[in-house]
Amino acid sequence: MVSWLHSLVNKLAAHVVGDTFMKLGVATCGKIAKAVVGEGTPFRSRSISELEQFLHDHDIDEKYRRMGDSKYKMASRALNNLDTCDEDDDQLHEIIVSLLESLVSSKTFSDFRGNVNEADQRDGITYLNETLAKHGLEIRLEDGEASLCFSNEIPLSKGAAAVAAKTKFVFQPRVFRPEAVDLETDSNIVAVMMPFEAKFNPVLDAIREACESIELACVRADNIWREAVIIDEIFSLICRSGIVVCDLTERNANVLYEMGIAQTIGKPVVMITQSDSDIPFDVKHHRYLKYLNNNQGREEMRDALANRLATIWNQEFSDGDSEE
User: Is the distance from CB of 95 to CB of 29 less than 8 angstroms?
Assistant: First the structure.
């Protein structure tokens, strides 16, 4: 059975780029095919024989060939045949990586004397980058050598080992509107995810006291309601926060969803709960604070939480010059 957190992460983003890749899709392959054949793009036009040679040079088999096909259909079918992935093998095919890099190489834009048409080359790179942007990919040219990269500048052609050194991801959410929210992180904000119920107000007060004791700002989404859509407000708060505190008491579905967002985008998350049984199995191996919802229990939670927040803040945001 697929775990709830794994399922949630899959739903949070339409495309995730890290050490794995989602398929490009028919539309993107179609635009790349136009570049390959030189149809309505900055790339030079190829004859049928030149197209077949180009595909052959990239070890593409002849399954793309159909009697009577246009050059565009041949190139499009060749790319779509390579653009396949599933849960067990969802890496972008290395031939597609090589083909894209070859398309904008200096050799492609050189005349018979070896002179490079740099203007056309720039236009070609711009065309492909506009096509690939929604997938979190871009082509960079350095010293005449083209590399297909993540947006965080890791060349795909260097393989998964290079990717593993940087656990960065690019998200294209379907539910949230990143363009409508403030995404700049404020390390002094602690976002609090908990049910909007009156019985949790004393708990929120204890969390706020913990934050204030170490000079951090405690913010819950209903305190700042700025966005027209509540999910955008919550997404904005999580993105802007330095640390996220999630009260998982009673397994509130909204809080679980919000915690999934925070963990997916790499925010430090502190889980608190009134009952061990409210911590989902998938995250039970992570550290959490258990508290009793009475005066003494909330005071003890406040002090423990303050210590935990201070530790995380120093690990994540301290410049190393502060005294112990």
Answer: no
Say which residues have a Cβ less than 8 Å from residue 145's Cβ, sequence separation at least 6. 105
d(CA 324, CA 314): 10
d(CA 21, CA 200): 41
pLDDT digits (tens, 9 = 90+) for 34-87: 999 998 898 989 998 888 888 888 888 777 677 778 899 988 888 888 887 544
Q: What is the mean pLDDT of the chain?
A: 80
DSSP at 228: S
Residues contacting residue 107 through CB under 8 Å, at least 6 positions apart:
none
The DSSP symbol for 75 reads H
Q: Clarify whether residues 138 and 183 are in a common domain.
A: no
* Cβ pair 79, 138 in contact under 8 A: no
- Residue 190 in any domain: the answer is yes
pLDDT in tens, 218-240: 999 765 544 445 777 888 899 89
| Same domain? 233 vs 308 | yes
Tell me if 12 is assigned to some domain: no
Residue 292: which residues within 8 A CB-CB, separation 6 or more? Answer: 274, 298, 300
- Do 78 and 47 lie in one domain? The reply is yes
Average pLDDT over residues 233-253: 92
Domain contains 14:
no
> How far apart, in whole angstroms, are the C-alpha atoms of residue 24 and residue 137?
10
Gap between the Cα atoms of 246 and 255, Å rounded:
7
pLDDT score recorded for residue 139? 87
In the 8-state DSSP scheme, what is residue 279? S
Alpha carbon 220 to its chain's center? 24
**Would you call 238 helix, strand, or coil by DSSP?**
helix
